[in-house]
Amino acid sequence: xxxxxxxxxxxxxxxxxxxxxxxxxxxxxxxxxxxxxxxxxxxxxxxxxxxxxxxxxxxxxxxxxxxxxxxxxxxxxxxxxxxxxxxxxxxxxxxxxxxxxxxxxxxxxxxxxxxxxxxxxxxxxxxxxxxxxxxxxxxxxxxxxxxxxxxxxxxxxxxxxxxxxxxxxxxxxxxxxxxxxxxxxxxxxxxxxxxxxxxxxxxxxxxxxxxxxxxx
Length: 216
Fold this sequence. Notes:
Blueprint: E1 2-8, H1 11-26, E2 30-33, H2 47-58, E3 64-68, H3 92-105, E4 115-116, H4 133-138, H5 146-155, H6 170-177, H7 183-194, H8 196-202, H9 204-214
Helix pairs in contact: 1-7, 5-6, 8-9
């Protein structure tokens, strides 16, 4: 059995890895751990800190290591490899690939082959827009303003692109549409009901990453 460590930005991503990704990867004989980023209260920290954690995990026998973090949570001051060089690269998917390649190149060469860098464009909750009917099925009409979710889908054809400004991030859209929405409580449950197949169909960057994980 192969071991995969996915370093998670926060508890929502951790629950998603444990409850949704892990059972599917186990079918491919891959066991996962999903530790949180160290020295963080839920969110990104400096690259130097994350790098130390990644390399420490890579030195654990033959473990593979990946990340589940979002690009828009990263500040210039966190000094990710070639971060400023990436600013002019478009489309955004090419920028993320450039940054992922740069992260891999900055890892110790003898262990870098087992590092699978990944950044989501926006936060985890964007994946939940892959099938908004799951919200209709799980919340009563008085609990949810479904039209707000429909509006987001009309505005962005790809769920991974949902976020036109910090106040309209995916999680904030969900909280506005569902006042009682709790990220950690609902996130992985809703993702599990949506199913990885639907998420991969609608979210190409996520699909590419998860396909890579399955092939280790």
